[in-house]
Amino acid sequence: MRLGRLFWKFFFAFWLALILAGAAVGSGVWWHQQGERSRIEAGRAPALAGGPRAAMTVPAAAAVLGHGGVPALRAWLADWPRERMPLLLYVVDGAGHELLGREVSEAVVADARQRARSADPRRPARQVTTADGQAHLLFIPAEAVGRDVRGFGPRHPPEPPGLWAPVSVGLVASVFFSALLAWYLSKPIRNLRWAFGAVAEGRLETRVRPLMGSRRDEIADLGGDFDRMAQQLQSLIGAQRRLLHDVSHELRSPLARLQAAIGLMRQDPSRLEASIERIERETGRVDELVGQLLTLARLEAGSRDMHEEQVDLVDLAAAIADDAGFEAESLGRSLRFDGHGEAPAPVRVEQIQRAFDNVIRNALKFTPPGTGVDVRAAAGEGGFVLRVEDRGPGVAEADLEAIFEPFHRGGNGHTTGGFGLGLAIARRAVQAHGGRIQASNRAGGGLRVEIFLPLVPAALQKD
Predict the structure, then answer these.
(1) What three-state secondary structure class fits 377?
(2) What's the rounded Cα separation, in Å, for the pair 304 and 433?
(3) Where would I find the H helices in 43-163?
(4) Which of 187, 207, 229, 421 is 20 to 30 A from residue 240's alpha carbon, by CA?
(5) Using CA atoms, how far apart are residues 428 and 352, in angstroms rounded to an integer?
(6) Which listed residue (249, 307, 408, 433) is catalytic?
(7) HSE, side-chain direction, 13 A CA sphere, residue 13
(8) Please, what is the angle between helix 218-267 and helix 164-200, to 10°?
(9) Spatial separation of the C-alpha atoms in residues 417 and 71, rounded to whole Å
(10) Cβ 450 vs Cβ 385: under 8 Å
(11) What whole-number distance in Å separates Cα of residue 455 and Cα of residue 3?
(12) Burial grade of 435 (CB within 10 A; 0-12, 13-18, 19 or more)
């Protein structure tokens, strides 16, 4: 597997950081050890030992001496586990004699007496007066810590450890962890690069999120965003291909009829008038189809070539319903309109007018003669709602969303004229204004289509 430049950048950055941090810590420890060694060699070490060992041993021995006297302390010292740790405690009486006969310098004893008079509870020396009135001084000389575990002879300061062993271990560890971190960070980026290349080659089914494993970070979120982009591209290109297929299918029929009419006119000049009428009718159908396709294309592209106007959507719906109702009467159908309130909003009037008109006329097309269409327009909380209900055959539940796709015709056996573009144009126009359109079947039969449009300008979708 080829490692990219980003891997090496991460690797050297982490490695350099680890080496610098290790060098800083090692230098600090080395200087501290050198300072301790210099003080010991120069005789400037403190007279008394401190630390946790003195903080536990001296108070414990003082408590034994205070409660049981010298015999108890001797027994306590006799039981000291010398095989595991050295006996560092010194006990000096008022005459300067050490309890176990060990030699101790007068300077150390003088320093211990001075420290014992301190009020600090952590003082390294204690003075205890037994029941017979004898004062005893308890302390741990610093020089005793420098003796070996058996208490024989002074121990020389430790030599600094060799440098090659820790340096080698540090280098190996830093290389391993730097490589691991660099691989962890660069691998998902390589996956993203591969996925972009695959999409560029046309493999729109490529998804990168499964390659991220169990990652839960920003890089994994980027993979999810890529997958959503690829899904959207796949959907848009698929819809484009279906649209091209449907357009070619819709154009084939009128063009075939045009060719047939021209052929009949050439074969039988006496049928010239009828052939011209057929040619005009089919030409009109092609022109209507092309016009609707252009409208749909502009909406799909988010064209803003039309300026926005402030209109009352309730009044606009009422005007469209009035025109449609007049035509409905000639077809033996009725249209009932119910409008409430005011709904002023800045909209692209031609688009919204076409959307309302397509939905209402689609309902009139499918409702049987002798029945009617109910149209209700009202300003609700947060927006405007237009509800159109017919008494037609309805739509299968599986097709309630598909009827808004171009060239879709329901499978309910009810055939009407048109190209199946009306509801598709209506949905694009409504969505371009930040609204939504949805369809559902009425309980008593028929289809209900509802349009919601926001009334605030900020809700308009930015193209």
Answers:
(1) strand
(2) 11
(3) 51-78, 106-116, 142-145
(4) 207
(5) 10
(6) 249
(7) 10
(8) 10
(9) 120
(10) yes
(11) 55
(12) buried
DSSP string covering 144-192, please? HHTB-TT--SBPPPPPPPPSHHHHHHHHHHHHHHHHHHHHHHHHHHHHH
Tokens of 225: 């965003």
With H, G, I as helix, E, B as strand and everything else as coil, classify residue 82: coil
Per the CB < 8 A criterion, the answer to whether 310 and 346 are in contact is yes
- What span, in angstroms and rounded, lies between the C-alpha atoms of 105 and 172? 50
H or E element that contains 31: helix 5-42
For the entire predicted model, the pTM comes to 0.48
Helices then strands, counting H and E runs in the chain, come out as 10, 10
- If one counts every other C-beta atom within 10 angstroms of the C-beta of residue 92, the result is 22
The answer to whether residues 54 and 140 touch, using CB atoms and an 8 Å cutoff, is yes
CB 126 within 8 A of CB 62: yes
Backbone CA torsion sign across 327, 332, 333, 339: positive
Which residue type is seen at 348?
Answer: R
Closest CA to 360 of 424, 422, 285: 422
* CA atoms lying within 13 Å on the CB side of residue 401: 1
Q: What end-to-end distance do the CA atoms of the chain give, in Å?
A: 44
Spatial contact of 206 and 199, defined as CB atoms under 8 Å apart: yes
Specify the amino acid at residue 109: V
Chain length of the chain: 463
Is the four-CA dihedral 319, 324, 328, 330 of positive or negative sign?
positive
249 as an active site residue: the answer is yes
- C-alpha gyration radius of the chain: 48
CA gap 191, 196 in Å, rounded: 9
Cα distance between residue 291 and residue 354, in whole Å? 13
From first to last of its 463 residues, the chain has per-residue pLDDT tens of: 555 565 666 677 777 777 777 777 767 666 766 665 565 455 555 677 767 777 888 888 888 888 888 899 888 888 888 777 777 889 998 888 888 888 888 888 888 888 888 877 777 888 988 888 889 898 988 776 655 434 434 444 445 555 566 667 667 777 777 777 777 777 888 888 888 888 888 888 888 888 887 777 777 888 888 888 988 888 778 767 776 766 776 677 778 878 888 887 888 877 788 888 878 887 887 877 777 777 777 766 665 556 788 999 999 999 999 989 888 888 889 999 999 888 999 988 888 988 999 899 889 988 999 999 999 999 877 789 999 999 988 888 888 888 888 776 655 545 555 567 778 888 888 988 889 999 999 888 899 999 999 987 543 344 4
| Closest by Cα among 401, 315, 409 to 362 | 409
